[in-house]
């Protein structure tokens, strides 16, 4: 049994659909090729920028500046330290006026810590087996803050010794200011700002730091 032929208008629509479908496929192909060319262009541009950066003299000048700063803040300063046997410290620890810094045997100074002694007389004396967590700052020098025509950065510095007793533990991001004594075996909680003395074996925390407890007894405190 033969089907009746389609009306002429349906045959015309079918003939028009076939070229339209082909045109859509060609358009998608052209779009994909254009995207691939753009991605290849971006890769070439990134490679060109990287090569330009390698060949640029300013890249090497910056590297030399960083090397000089690293030498100043660590290598040269470490040579000036007075330190006992077995002291360990991360390579990114910074020191200022290290000739006035003493570190006892077995002490560890954590990553990115900063020990800043005074320019003329403020000393930092750290006992044996003291533990510094990362990002601890100890300074024996502060700027003056008197009101008047002289900006803070130009005022004479106020210097005073900092003493940290044997076996103490300073948590991450602790700040110890000039004139403070932290007693033997004391613990300073992370983030504290120490502006006053901390007794031996006390636990201090807060901003400004205050005594919030005492270490439980038991064991050799110097172990």
TrEMBL record:
Keywords: Acyltransferase, Repeat, Transferase. It comes from the Bacteria. CDD domains: LbH_MAT_like. It comes from Microbacterium hominis. Residues 1-12 have a biased composition (Basic and acidic residues). The keyword Disulfide bond does not apply. This is Acyltransferase. Gene3D superfamilies: Hexapeptide repeat proteins (2.160.10.10). The keyword Repeat applies. Residues 1-41 are annotated as: Disordered. InterPro entries: Hexapep (IPR001451), Hexapep_transf_CS (IPR018357), Hexapeptide_acetyltransf (IPR051159), Trimer_LpxA-like_sf (IPR011004). Pfam families: Hexapep. One of its GO terms (molecular function) is acyltransferase activity.
